[in-house]
Amino acid sequence: METTKDLLRLATVGSVDDGKSTLIGRLLVDTRQLFDDQLDAVQAASEKRGVGDLDLSFVTDGLRAEREQGITIDVAYRYATTPKRKFIIADCPGHIQYTRNMATGASTADLALVVLDVAAGLKEQTRRHLCIAALLGVRSIIVAVNKMDAINWSEEAFRKVENDFASLSQELGFSSSLLIPVSALLGDNVVDASSNTPWYSGPTVLDALDSSNAGAPSSSHEAARLPIQWVLRQPGGGRTYAGMVNGSNFQVGDTVTLLPAGIETTISDIHYGGQDVSEATVGLSADLGLSAETDAGRGDLIASSPLPTVTKELDATICWFGEKPIKSGQRLRIKHTSKSTPVRVASINGLIDIEKLSVSGATSLTTNDIGLATLQTADALVVDDYRVNRVTGSFVLIDEVTNATVAAGMVGRASFL
Amino acid sequence: MTHTHIPSSTDHLDLLESHAIFILREVVAECERPVLLFSGGKDSAVLLHLAVKAFAPQALPFPIMHINTGQNFQEVLDFRDRTAQQIGARLIVANVQDSIDQGKVADPGPMGSRNRLQTVTLLDAINDNKFDAAFGGARRDEDKARAKERILSFRDTFGQWDPKAQRPELWQLYQGKVNTGEHVRAFPLSDWTELDIWQYIEREEMDLPSIYFAHERDVIMRDGMWLAVGEFVEPQAGEVVRRHVVRFRTVGDANCTGAVLSNAATLHDIIEEVTVANVSERGATRADDKFSETAMEDRKREGYF
Q1: Structural domains of chain A, with CATH
Q2: Partners of residue A394 in chain B, C-beta under 8 Å
């Protein structure tokens, strides 16, 4: 049996009631990823709540409150495998008040599976989610144009959505987008090709997911980064610096710079789980030895060229989740890679209008607003623009009293704004 | 490992392993007093194996803790002790019996389930030791409530989980800061499935309790499950003792964990069996999940693993 598979992380995106959870339920049921007892439990729960024989949304909507209200409150993670790959599926909530949870699910996604109701078209909430997904750097999307059964499989209706979607997709800068006419309820074009859409010759949702190259490690010549999490002492007195590799690979002998100190040195040795290796590739938790004697520690960064920026002032895009508005002058804590330091909001530079994809003047942001801000940090941070590197370009803001995570931030500004 | 495995960015087991190691290191760096919850089951065995890798060649920077219901399988207790000794970990054992003796929970009797009582013992042990982070081996594919939980899951001063108000958890910016009396549960195996666990155990040639492998045992059928006859399960009127070749898919208390009829005697056999299974591991073998539609959510809210 083949045990080596690649990994694709995807998140569902779209408005409430357009059928995200039902689609994921259908995908799992039709690929036989669900066990008999899980299916029995979904059937029993459906009957108990009077929603028919089998409410597929109950496959992922597992909380008591979700089933009572018939909505998704928080992200559910589900797993599926095909002979080729393992999928980690984040089924995200559609309601605006749960935007923080949607952002949680989408922040780690390689691909967004957009679900929309063909009759309703591009709702404001769908546009909002697509905008957030684009801001979070998701470049590949697959659009399930759902509830085709309810409009008698009308090609005309599908083409209209396709048309509306094309301009938005282009504006938001998605690198690939594919629209598929489906019925999550009945299963058409989800796993099995439908005979109801003879005018559609493209792949099913499963085929599209299986053949997507969204999760492939980048082949471009990006710079390598390793934010130091922990220092390990090696037998004989040497030290190695542990963290997860991102951007590009590190090899023994590579010239690197330790930041923010700015010490140029070379990689003397690489270890993985106590074993010597010659290379540390993207996504692996390795530990690196450096030729130079340094006092490197947690919060420092090992980088190859082109080097990131060392700064105490950031222009960033932030999604605000706090209950009270964020204003200039406010003090918070920032967590950026493995570094935490106090931060002050120097200014709020605008609010993003999701409908117009433009920035309007604003001096504060309220819950679930997305805006632009300038932040000043106590200690210097080592950052890349988020569009260049999702790890060194991202941060969260933390309330210093409650320790609650109150914002997600991305260094720089999306090109569509 | 006898052969040298070169870790790769395109191998899902390597990526899962690296993600788990990243989480282990991050929590140890951010929290003051972490602990790893070790039941002796396959998931916590994998978790401990990963923890050793994360801090190699140094020693484990935290103790391991077992919540002992007093109704465990002896094979699992033996495995617990030999594993702790092998890696030189400091083992803390918190006994449910002590909670019963102190009058904190009602004694369910020698045959009664102590499953739910564990929560009190667990929360007391976390409190007494001032732990601010507890690693657990829970996986999201196990249960629909676990499927909803963050990798770092915040618990208030009562140890409660509030599924409607979880902290946002973006990218890999795991945030474990808490105030005194609060703690986080950290689940490095969140994205692993049962099959991933078994494939990893095979690849890493890990030791496990013998009851995971097919063996002959006296069992009785109760509530649709094969229970092992022994100290904590005695046949009642009408129950027939049978001798079958069985194995355990999960390891919990002897009186609420069912065996499955199986001839899978090797890791290879088990992987084949898991690949074609049509009943989930908890559905097949755990009475504790069958109390109600949301049994796991209800227990998790109270502070359960």
Answers
A1: 6-211 (3.40.50.300), 225-303 (2.40.30.10), 309-411 (2.40.30.10)
A2: 170-171, 173
Distance (Å, whole) CA A375 – CA A396: 12
Residues of chain A in contact with residue B294, where contact means CB-CB under 8 angstroms, are: 62-64
Contact list in A for residue B283 (CB cut-off 8 A) is 35-38, 41
Helix (H) or strand (E) holding A227: strand A225-227
- The whole-number pLDDT of residue A219 equals 46
Class of CATH domain B12-198+294-302: alpha beta
Q: Is B268 helix (H, G, I), strand (E, B) or coil?
A: helix
Q: Is A379 exposed, middle or buried (0-12, 13-18, 19+ CB in 10 A)?
A: middle
Nearest CA-CA distance, residue A287 and chain B, Å? 10
The better pLDDT of the pair A29, B31 is held by B31
B219: β partners: B228, B242
Search chain B and give the residue with CA nearest A243.
Answer: B22
Give the model confidence (pLDDT) of A329-341 as tens digits.
999 999 999 999 9
Across the range A126-134, mean pLDDT stands at 89
Q: What is the enclosing helix (H) or strand (E) of B14?
A: helix B12-30
In chain B, where does DSSP find H-type helix?
12-30, 42-55, 74-87, 96-101, 118-128, 194-203, 267-276, 281-285, 295-302
Nearest CA in chain A to B51: A273
Nearest chain A residue to B278 by CA distance is A35
Whole-complex ipTM: 0.91
Taking residues B34-40, report their average pLDDT.
95
How close, in Å, is residue A136 to chain B by CA atoms?
Answer: 10
